[in-house]
Amino acid sequence: MRMQMLAPIRPRFGGLLNPSWFNTFRGLRALSSSSSASANQSRGGLPRFFSENLPTTKGSVVRVQGDEFWHMTKVLRLGINDRVELFNGKGELIEGCIERIDRYGIDFVALEDPKFILSQNTQWHVFAAFGSLKGGRADWLVEKCTELGASSVTPLLTERSSSISENRVDRLQRVVLAATKQCQRLHEMILNPPMKIDDLLPTVSQSTLSFVAVAEATPLVSALTSLRIQPSGLIIVGPEGDFTEKELNLITGSGASAVGLGPHRLRVETATMALLATLMLWSDSQQAVDS
């Protein structure tokens, strides 16, 4: 049988390139969650490590031990006089060098006074029911929330995702730290303890900008056209199988706006990333226009 050759299918992108979409994000200067000035300050070329305690002045010394010490000396094989940066997850950054190494840690000496960099982006707080996710999907969700610039992530306990193990929470804390270092953000993302729907409702009612992902609701981009940026906002995503009708009514009844993310059924982590990425770009574009 002679095979009939099929012409390649070329997707028609013309209909997708809607000018109104680009107008929504006009003025966006970079795929960053902060202004260019603070971004340039926070992204150095030196290896960067976390330390709760930083030197207070130029010439001061702090001790670095534990996992960061191991990473410096065993993974990167840094030695005496090698220059590195320390940050504390609260916006402070300092450059210095390794003064001394022994079996238990290194002594870091500051070559400058600490710099404090303000967080200038909208504080987006993510509430997602990811306790039942398998195979590293929860790790991926938390990692990408960190990279995209979420201020906090809270595991949401629902009827269809009613628990999350303490061991998993400990692991996720390590994921947050690794992602914070990788993307070079200076303000740590907070991983909050699990929260029940009833405990979330007062937070929703006090927020002027909160969104809950709901199938077939008003598209998110359409909902944003009539809104103005606020200092903080909430992102709420249900579990596999979605919120129950009662749970959804409680959330929207407290003031959250139901928004849609397209015609397809999305996984918990996909919906979370779609909401967060779009809102980060939107808030960045609003700040660019206002400035």
UniProtKB/TrEMBL annotation:
Give GO BP annotations, semicolon-separated. Answer: rRNA base methylation
Alphabetized, the UniProt keywords read: Cytoplasm, Methyltransferase, rRNA processing, S-adenosyl-L-methionine, Transferase
Indicate the enzyme's highest-level EC class. transferase
GO CC aspect terms: cytoplasm
Q: Where in the cell is it found?
A: Cytoplasm
The cross-references to Gene3D superfamilies, in alphabetical order and at most eight, read:
3.40.1280.10
Q: Name one GO molecular function term.
A: rRNA (uridine-N3-)-methyltransferase activity
Q: Where is the Ribosomal RNA small subunit methyltransferase E PUA-like domain?
A: 65-104
Q: What is its EC number?
A: 2.1.1.193
Catalytic activity as recorded in UniProt: uridine(1498) in 16S rRNA + S-adenosyl-L-methionine = N(3)-methyluridine(1498) in 16S rRNA + S-adenosyl-L-homocysteine + H(+)
Q: Where is the Ribosomal RNA small subunit methyltransferase E methyltransferase domain?
A: 124-279
Query: Per the annotation, which location comes first and is thus the protein's main one?
Result: cytoplasm
For this chain, the family text in UniProt reads:
Belongs to the RNA methyltransferase RsmE family.
Task performed by this protein: Specifically methylates the N3 position of the uracil ring of uridine 1498 (m3U1498) in 16S rRNA. Acts on the fully assembled 30S ribosomal subunit.
Q: What is this protein called?
A: 16S rRNA (uracil(1498)-N(3))-methyltransferase
What organism is listed for this UniProt entry? Cannabis sativa (Hemp)
